[in-house]
Specification:
It comes from Reichenbachiella faecimaris. Keywords: Signal. By secondary structure, this protein is mostly beta strands. It has a single domain, classed as Beta Barrel (Porin). The strands form 2 sheets. A 14-stranded antiparallel β-barrel has the order 1-2-3-4-5-6-7-10-12-13-14-15-16-17. The chain has a two-stranded antiparallel ribbon with strand order 8-9.
Length: 309
């Protein structure tokens, strides 16, 4: 029995190594956090904005993914330049990755809206604490501590006005090899990071004096993987309450909300309900964020500046 358990643990760890090496974290509140997907979004609000996010995925499953991030961006005094910062911690089982990226966006004012082109650069530092796995032999060369460091860069384009937006990005252009295992006699398990392509678009429409709707879609294209997409629908009530639903293709349904507390603070929450057999084993995924905004004295209201995206 112990032998079978050890074999199962070994297979599970190998699969997790390959999967986690290939995947970027997926989260649900990105409709309220555009910089997480596209560096060209930096400075689009013409104010300083910082968002703290925490996501606990697949509650009740040991070693399930945990995602935490800080995204912040602002417009500079030149007004046509935006800068941003994106810091992410992504943990899956014994694997943990920290990502730190800075972004720069140049904005061009056009007759119908504002076009921005953005670049980002930074690094991913990944650690695998396989030595913490409880196995039959603590000297097993597969189960060792390893650490990798990979610089990367990305790019994006974003067009928006007060009524609609469209964007496209390749946030992580390089696809480095990810090798687990180091040291004398260690057995290496190798995976390769995938390149992601994001395309998203949406609009806002008045339904009445106090109600707006804002549908949007996100396409996720990944090397050597089928196309995935999200469909989102948000209701904006009195410009204070955002209430929405989302469908992630063959994955989950989500309920999400954002509450505007005052000029400076917003809070939000999302609950994901998995589709299929996974729902039998988990209570879903919980995600919460806090958004702090500061209007800039040198930034005047712009009729073309997006408000709801």
């Amino acid at each position: 029995m112990k032998l079978i358990k050890g074999i199962l643990i070994g297979v599970l760890v190998c699969v997790c190594q390959l999967v986690s090496a290939q995947q970027r974290p997926v989260f649900s509140t990105y409709p309220y956090n555009g910089l997480a997907l596209n560096p060209a979004y930096a400075g689009s609000l013409n104010m300083f904005s910082a968002i703290l996010t925490n996501r606990n995925q697949w509650v009740n499953i040991d070693g399930a993914p945990v995602y935490q991030s800080l995204t912040a961006h602002t417009t500079l005094r030149e007004k046509n330049v935006g800068v941003g910062l994106n810091v992410v911690r992504d943990a899956v089982g014994v694997h943990e990755q920290y990502s730190v990226y800075g972004s720069f966006a140049y904005k061009i004012r056009m007759s119908k809206g504002i076009l921005a082109m953005g670049l980002q650069g930074g690094f991913d530092q990944r650690t695998s604490n396989l030595d913490r796995v409880n196995v039959i032999s603590q000297d097993d060369p597969l189960f060792v501590f390893s650490k990798t460091f990979n610089p990367n860069f990305g790019m994006g384009i974003y067009f928006a006005n007060r009524d609609y937006f469209i964007g496209a990005s390749i946030p992580y252009f390089l696809t480095p090899d990810v090798i687990e295992g180091s040291g004398d006699g260690a057995i290496a398990s190798e995976g390769k990071a995938s390149r992601y392509y994001y395309i998203n678009a949406g609009f806002v429409k008045d339904m009445s004096r106090n109600l707006k709707i804002s549908p949007s879609i996100l396409l996720r294209l990944q090397d050597d993987a089928p196309v995935a997409f999200d469909i989102n629908l948000n209701f904006i009530i009195n410009e204070i309450i955002y209430a929405g639903v989302s469908y992630r293709y063959q994955d989950s349904f989500s309920l999400m909300t954002q509450l505007v507390l005052n000029e400076n603070f917003r809070i939000g929450y999302a609950y994901d309900i998995p589709i299929g057999s996974l729902g039998t084993y988990t209570a879903g995924s919980h995600e919460i964020f806090l958004n702090y905004r500061i209007p800039l004295k040198f930034s005047k209201k712009d009729g073309l500046c997006p408000v709801y995206f």
